[in-house]
Amino acid sequence: MTDITLETRVRDSFARQTMMQTLDAQLVSIAPGRCVIRAPIVDHLKQQHGAAHAGLAFTLGDTAAGYAALSVMGEETDVMTVEMKINLLSPALGDALEAVGQVMRAGKRLTVVTAEVFALQGETRKSVALLQGTMIPVAQR
Amino acid sequence: MTDITLETRVRDSFARQTMMQTLDAQLVSIAPGRCVIRAPIVDHLKQQHGAAHAGLAFTLGDTAAGYAALSVMGEETDVMTVEMKINLLSPALGDALEAVGQVMRAGKRLTVVTAEVFALQGETRKSVALLQGTMIPVAQR
Amino acid sequence: MTDITLETRVRDSFARQTMMQTLDAQLVSIAPGRCVIRAPIVDHLKQQHGAAHAGLAFTLGDTAAGYAALSVMGEETDVMTVEMKINLLSPALGDALEAVGQVMRAGKRLTVVTAEVFALQGETRKSVALLQGTMIPVAQR
Amino acid sequence: MTDITLETRVRDSFARQTMMQTLDAQLVSIAPGRCVIRAPIVDHLKQQHGAAHAGLAFTLGDTAAGYAALSVMGEETDVMTVEMKINLLSPALGDALEAVGQVMRAGKRLTVVTAEVFALQGETRKSVALLQGTMIPVAQR
Question: What is the pLDDT of residues A89-107, one digit of tens each?
Fold first, then answer.
């Protein structure tokens, strides 16, 4: 698969994820085995302390990891999360969250992925969450 | 802490979580060691296949587990997620998701929790996700 | 598969796991979707505080969960762990550890399992660890 | 804490872990935030397919991660595993396993760690497992 095909394919899938629009998330970059997604930390996605909700960090990390996995799967497949674990390192405070997903091992049946989520504030970039999980190919509809 | 105090305290905290309003989530019940939350599966919270996004199941499960933990902590404390793992059992299709959070062990420093997320469709109730994680008390602001 | 076939098949596989012999572990029971394993807490399997090593609780829980999964798979298959998470609830002190593995969802491609590990001391039985993970069928050799 | 103090302290603790002796494990190196442990893959620590048991990879990874965490904690403390997740990437075949534990974030109350486990065979070194978890300081006895 060429990089252009990959980019088109992931952007199409991303556009179909209404959750990504609700989060105002953007696909920053996609390359074989690596995907970066960014979303602003806005008032309507917070927990009770005013930081971004753990669910936001999870959703961005899981999605970045999922597209990283998809980038190494066959063209006719789509991807689903089997399981994902998140460790929260720091409160997610700042202007935006950036999730970097990476493939650790691409297998025939399963792909193991990690993601790191950073809080961006002005020039600073602080790691706020680590994810590790498993993705599985599914037939495209 | 009386059950009325507990209910008031959790409802207050829940109301401050803007993420819960964005998801149109409702606190169904709270009792010592157990919390139930429900949210409709709506068009703007889906993944690319039309099922609810894994991030929605995670966010509801994590929040139900967090309030279950808070219910067994001291009155002056609040709660944060240390880490959480989710296994997705089935696509989250239906009218709504219901998350049932439970305390498995309340320790002085940490509380171990689980949550199960069900997809509700008409009269049926299907388990779609299992979560297991750790909560920590933090000073209330 | 009859229960006798299942029992024979699991006992054969268990006997080939030399790790189980090193831990002096015994297969207590096997039934469709559920497996119980027990091992003594002995001096040579401890951590630096004198409790059983987390690795012992993990190994027993993982193995009980694996055989629970195998019990619902086809006769010609064997089973491997995809991923497993353990939360340690209490120090594993006592005479023996007992691991109870259970199938939460048996799928065509993957099986989701949980396990609980108990420390046995005289008449008491205390929960010391919770596990949640994923098993995959593999071709039998 | 000087590096000599750190090395002495970790070697003393390691020597008290009888499980490490049973596995014939050796402490290869310890430095602030990083610990390497190695153990031979021997006949009595295998699963039913002849590869090293998942429990061996877990035990080595968990222990390397634990000492990495201890290396950044106060001198009077010891360390325990709160929770740990392992993804198995490949069958653990070869002469030995090497676990590399690393601190990802050292907090006041908790330390987040990762570990990678490699199978060593002749000159080759293959990644067979990834771990991500949480360590907690405990009073030294």
Answer: 999 999 999 999 999 999 9
Chain A residues contacting C via beta carbons under 8 Å? 82-83, 85, 109-110, 133-134, 136
Residues of chain D whose C-beta is under 8 A from some C-beta in C?
13-14, 16-19, 21-22, 43-49, 53-56, 58-59, 62-63, 78, 80-88, 91, 138, 141
Q: Is the pLDDT of residue A3 over 80?
A: no
Position B141 scores a pLDDT of 65
Q: How far is D110 from chain B (nearest CA, A)?
A: 9
What residues in D contact B109, CB-CB < 8 Å?
109, 136
pLDDT greater than 70 at residue D21: yes
Query: What's the pLDDT score for residue B34?
Result: 98
Q: Following CA atoms D67, D70, D71, D75 in sequence, which dihedral angle do they give, to the nearest 10 degrees?
A: -140
Of all residues in chain A, the percent with pLDDT exceeding 90 is 81
Mutate to test the interface with D, among C24, C35, C53, C135 (most CBs of D within 10 A): C53
Out of B22, B85, B141, whose CB is closest to A85?
Answer: B85
Give the C-alpha separation, C50 to D65, whole Å: 19
Q: Which residue of A has its CA nearest to C86?
A: A85
Domains with residue ranges and CATH for chain A? 3-139 (3.10.129.10)
Q: How far is CA D62 from the centre of its chain?
A: 5
- pLDDT confidence of residue B4: 73
Q: Annotate chain A with three-state secondary structure.
A: CCHHHHHHHHHHHHHHCHHHHHCCCEEEEEECCEEEEEEECCHHHECCCCCECHHHHHHHHHHHHHHHHHCCCCCCEEEEEEEEEEEECCCCCCCEEEEEEEEEEECCCCEEEEEEEEEEECCEEEEEEEEEEEEEEEECC
From the list A22, A58, A138, which residue is nearest B45 (CB)?
A: A22
Entry pTM: 0.96
Of residues B141 and C52, which shows the higher confidence score?
C52
Query: Predicted confidence band at B50 (pLDDT cuts at 50, 70, 90)?
Result: confident
